[in-house]
Amino acid sequence: TILFTGLIEKSDHIEKCDRSESCSAFQAAGYIKQIFQPLIDNDHTDDIKVRFIRNENDIMTDESSIEPIYTILQNAPCLDKQAYIIESFLDEFIEGFVHTYQHIKNHAAMLLDSDNEFWYAIKKITSARVLIRTTLFYAMLIRRVQQPQFSANQEVAHQYLEGYLQLHSSNLNLQLAECEINELLHLNIPYFTHQPNCKDLFMGDNGKCANYFKFSAMENIHWNIEHASDIYCNRQIAILRNVIKSNSVITSHCPCYNCLQD
């Protein structure tokens, strides 16, 4: 995979992605050589993955879209040239979600008991990661500050990062932003953590933002259990169905890498 860094002129026939990811070229053992746009999966986690799409109709068509979409499914289970993904088992997934949610709601009193081992187990968690921005967002900024106009002058790079973070923040925390900038200038992905029973945000440079959160994680969990309702459950199901409906429809022809080699 060759990622477009901004130093190579972009092809005129490739439109910019709605999510502003860069264009990419994907090459697979000589079988496919095309210009693709990246589609990012799990960009709020450490398991970030990149898929690639192009506007041609040789493998897959999304009937809900004006233009056809081609997708390579590298991680979907494949059996007899058919890909199996969550869209194939939506009803079963929703059934499991409803059963679990109802179980929590029906046992709320037991879970809310302060002597329940559940709360002690949470307290044993020393820290958990907090996603302030996506890993992809930080990776893009690292590529920017590696470019000649920024890498030669730390002050210019600092000013650029400060302005960019301000532009893409609804309410910029200056202490947090300074930590982000310091890590990015060292070509590191900023990493933040919190403790379940604490409202502070801990930063990678050993600093912290006191009372960054209005409520601690334990307080939020307690509130969600206490206010569990069928209205909330049905709302989550509606959101899930809407998201699945807006995604590409997987056809009987599997576009995974192995099948493309046949």
What does this structure look like?
- This protein has 262 residues and is an alpha+beta fold.
- It has 2 domains: 2-84 and 252-260, no CATH class; 94-221, no CATH class.
- The protein is 39% helix and 15% strand.
- It has 10 helices and 11 strands.
- Strands 1-2-3-4-5 form a 5-stranded antiparallel sheet, with no helix packed on it.
- Strand 3 and strand 4 form a beta hairpin.
- Helix 1 (90-106) runs antiparallel to helix 9.
- Residues 1-36, 55-74 and 248-253 have low confidence and may be disordered.
- Residues 62-194 form the Lantibiotic biosynthesis protein dehydration domain.
- This is Lantibiotic biosynthesis protein dehydration domain-containing protein.
Strand and helix map with partners:
Blueprint: E1 2-3, E2 24-28, E3 32-41, E4 49-54, E5 70-71, E6 78-79, E7 82-83, H1 90-106, H2 108-112, H3 117-123, E8 128-130, H4 135-145, H5 148-151, H6 154-167, H7 174-185, E9 192-194, E10 201-203, E11 208-209, H8 217-226, H9 230-246, H10 257-260
Number of β-strand runs: 11
> Can you summarize the main beta sheet?
5 strands, antiparallel
Distance from first to last alpha carbon: 22 Å
What pattern of helices and strands is seen along the backbone?
Answer: EEEEEEEHHHEHHHHEEEHHH
Task: Quote the average pLDDT.
Answer: 71
Protein name: Lantibiotic biosynthesis protein dehydration domain-containing protein
Organism: Adineta steineri
InterPro entries: Lant_dehyd
Pfam families: DUF4135
